[in-house]
Amino acid sequence: MRSEDLKRLNEILNKLALDNFFEDYKELKDFYEYLAARYHFDLKTHTVDPSTGNIILLKDQDKIYS
Question: CB-based burial of residue 42 (10 Å sphere; 0-12 exposed, 13-18 middle, 19+ buried)?
């Protein structure tokens, strides 16, 4: 993952942790959709590790709620 994308993801996560506003959740969701399109992965089965930028498989796919 490009460093600017990882930096932006962490900025959104930090803002969400501080503010906890609904708008921040939408921004996070929209950014994850952007990342999925850019890096060609399915959000239903994969996510991004914000500490490393690696695309990782979700472990318990039966408990994924959209």
Answer: exposed
Residue 65 lies in a domain: no
The reported pLDDT for the residue numbered 66 is: 43
In a domain, 64, yes or no: no
Total count of domains within the chain? 1
Residues 15-41 as b or e (16 or more Cβ within 10 Å = b): eeeeeeeeebeeeeeebbeebbeeeeb
Asked if pLDDT for residue 14 goes beyond 70, the answer is yes
Q: What is the pTM of this model?
A: 0.69
What is the C-alpha separation between 47 and 35, in angstroms, rounded?
9
Question: Does any domain span residue 66?
Answer: no
